Amino acid sequence: MTWGAVGQTRIGLLGAGTVGGALCELIAARRLGVQVAHVLVRDPDKPRAAGVPTAALTTDPEEVLAGSEVIVELMGGTGLAGDLMLRALAAGKRVVTANKAVLAERWDAFAPALAAGTLYFEAAVMAGTPAVAPLAGVLRGSRPLELHAILNGTCNYILGELETGADFETALAEAQRLGYAEADPSLDVDGVDAAHKLTLLARLAFDPELSWEAVRANTRGIRHLTPAVIKEAMEDGGRIRLVGSVYPEGGAWRAAVRPVYLPPSHALAGSASNRNGLLFRGDAVGEVLITGAGAGAAPTASAVLADLLDALAARPGPSPLRAAAPQPDGYEAHPLGEIK
Amino acid sequence: MTWGAVGQTRIGLLGAGTVGGALCELIAARRLGVQVAHVLVRDPDKPRAAGVPTAALTTDPEEVLAGSEVIVELMGGTGLAGDLMLRALAAGKRVVTANKAVLAERWDAFAPALAAGTLYFEAAVMAGTPAVAPLAGVLRGSRPLELHAILNGTCNYILGELETGADFETALAEAQRLGYAEADPSLDVDGVDAAHKLTLLARLAFDPELSWEAVRANTRGIRHLTPAVIKEAMEDGGRIRLVGSVYPEGGAWRAAVRPVYLPPSHALAGSASNRNGLLFRGDAVGEVLITGAGAGAAPTASAVLADLLDALAARPGPSPLRAAAPQPDGYEAHPLGEIK
């Protein structure tokens, strides 16, 4: 048996962009013995990455759903992607996804699958760097106190450019030229992508009922940051980063995304601008820091493949808490200086 | 139902030292609804931590095994602790342990339980800081390239003292006075404890057949380090730390524990001396760093409690690879300067 071999399960891919291509290459390199049987795409004639089996391309979602035992959703968006996942889950199939938006905004619809552990979404947050699994697993041994995380690579890149003296529009244009930012960059630079990811982490470790609307209302992006503000932060040896936080406030868990000043001593300040970082504080475990790539085709495909291995072995996926974690009595969260 | 409630399962504790006491307190604070039904101790008259149910204390292992549905082993050692765990596993019970020594040295005996996922040992490496779970889970989405980890808190403390100018004997005596080091400190300062932990990580992510003897033969401790050597490292802004590494060498995975020089730019050099750190490089995910407390009663109990939650929910524990991960072709591992 080869390393990681798991039999001839038929996999259905929804979407075959850069992550899908990287996943097909990983599956082939690992000789998993799975078969990528159906690949849903909009345009079958578009060129695809080397590992994508062109004979499996189809524009018919029904073919993918009917002919696949495990579904991997990489098409993105909160509409059709979510509808197809829900149908596959309702039909008893296991589903792997990298789609933070649909889970953040339509979480309740996925509740039965989340409770059953048939939905896998490690790739939705920080790509292949462990985030979903630790918060739904090992770190549950402690009561949560607070969490702070750098979750968006595009904002990191732009902030790094601002540190070199570029203005926001120039930095954004460069990020778009390099393929880091979409033509419509608002999901990234307005903090929506980070808010989607934070919502998932917060529901796993703090409050399963946290609403998307509440997080969205506490979200601000980086468009308003000027070179002068960045320069001032750097004079102190610190950095400005878009940080998503969960912390106790007024008897409830508050989740917010906003640019903050990180002093040089802060654990999240040390990461390079191409890395994401997650800082968790728990009552028993203390402070845990996890850093690594937070985006990119290969790191994202790495997480998808790990989830696929779990799905194929029928290991249950992450389940949310059954009730909100209790507020820590008299605990003062470590404040971060918000940049207005 | 309270946060995390899982019913009235009867738990049997083997050992009730500082970690056992901390665990009993966490269980009570979380209102898990489990019952610590039996607690095996050597001396029932010795004072115990507040949370330990004194009525459950017994010196009879048979009572614990017969009357408990889940066994939590915190007594340590490679003899009786291992024998009792193996008997519980053979009887179909799930077992949680913090015992890295017995798993490193008697791994083959635990093979059936490891394959079945009925043995849980997150606490055995880096306490409640995620280590076992990521290597047996998310990080399996990438082929491993190399791993470097700071795994022993006592050595970290002593090396921190050496950095202030103390000599080894003085630093060791202070570590013993503070309770960081045992009266017989050889497991820590000769690198054996780190080698036990590294062996587990290497088997989960690199080679399931890696022998304890091979790792032990590549292990050197910190007794020979002089203040002059430490001082020289600090002059470059770097640090000397006891690091366990796994990397490809001559067509096989080599695992070694030894004091190395970490330049200031190295990811593991930034951690405070009271923290452990794990750096994993994979082909798709790139470099992932996880740091946090690596010892202590509460952080260790945090990992035990997380494992206990999994065991109670019958979520499978970590399983080793089925075959060694392939050597990366032409890959040059990042060398670390060994201190002779």
What does this structure look like?
The structure is a homodimer of 340-residue chains. The first copy, chain A, has two domains: 9-120, NAD(P)-binding Rossmann-like Domain (Rossmann fold, 3-Layer(aba) Sandwich); 132-294 and 324-338, Dihydrodipicolinate Reductase, domain 2 (2-Layer Sandwich). Chain A has 340 residues and is of the alpha/beta class. A six-stranded parallel β-sheet of chain A has the order 3-2-1-4-5-6, with helices on both faces. In chain A, helix 7 (153-163) crosses helix 8. The longest helix of chain A is centred in the last third of the chain and has 16 residues, at 297-312. Chain A has helices at 18-30, 61-67, 80-90, 100-105, 111-116, 132-136, 153-163, 168-177, 186-189, 192-205, 212-217, 227-235, 297-312; strands at residues 10-14, 35-40, 57-58, 70-73, 94-97, 119-120, 144-150, 239-249, 252-262, 276-282, 286-292, 337-338. Chains A and B meet through helix 1, strand 11 and helix 13 of A and helix 1, strand 11 and helix 13 of B.
Radius of gyration of chain A: 20 Å
Large-scale geometry of chain A: globular
CATH architecture term of the largest domain in chain A: 2-Layer Sandwich
- The CATH topology of the largest domain in chain A: Dihydrodipicolinate Reductase, domain 2
Assembly type: homodimer
Strand order of the largest sheet of chain A: 3-2-1-4-5-6
SSE order of chain A, as H and E?
Answer: EHEEHEHEHHEHEHHHHHHEEEEHE
Q: Spell out the CATH superfamily of the largest domain in chain A.
A: Dihydrodipicolinate Reductase, domain 2
N- to C-terminal separation of chain A?
58 Å
